[in-house]
Amino acid sequence: MNNLNFRVTADLYASKSNRFVNFIIDIIIYYVLSFILGILLGLLTVIGINAPLEMITNSVIAGYVFSFGVFLIYFIVFEVLSQKTLGKYITKTKVVMEDGSKPKPADVIIRSLCRLIPFEVFSFLSDDARGWHDSMSDTYVVDIEKFEAKRNTQSELEMIGQSIID
Hints:
Elements: H1 16-46, H2 51-58, H3 60-82, H4 86-91, E1 93-97, H5 105-114, H6 132-135, E2 139-143, H7 144-159
Antiparallel strand pairs: 1-2
Helix pairs in contact: 2-3, 3-5
């Protein structure tokens, strides 16, 4: 379908409750990933490779870099590859651009970096349930079922009157 006439509208947005569930699931996944990587770093010390774990535990900055790195990699990898994090898979939501297309990697990187803004999580208290990381990256989190239904309807309406060429 040609996305020229399609626009994401507020009726397609994921609900605040779905966004909250996404947040909780994704934060849990982030902590699990950090824990697993911590265990792997601990296992490295058992075989005599102490530097990575020592650097993270002895330097506050290195600890933040590790923490933010895990956070960013999780969101960027999942959203670039599938437009969804694990939380979005569960709530049946996904990230799209205003015309319904898949976000470019640069859009996802901006989106993910904006998540690091202090108090960004409270930006969802607005009426439209769009966070700063959505508005700053010009992305939208939509309910997949509603999104696909609207897109299919629009596609069918655009096909009315078009001739079929073999």
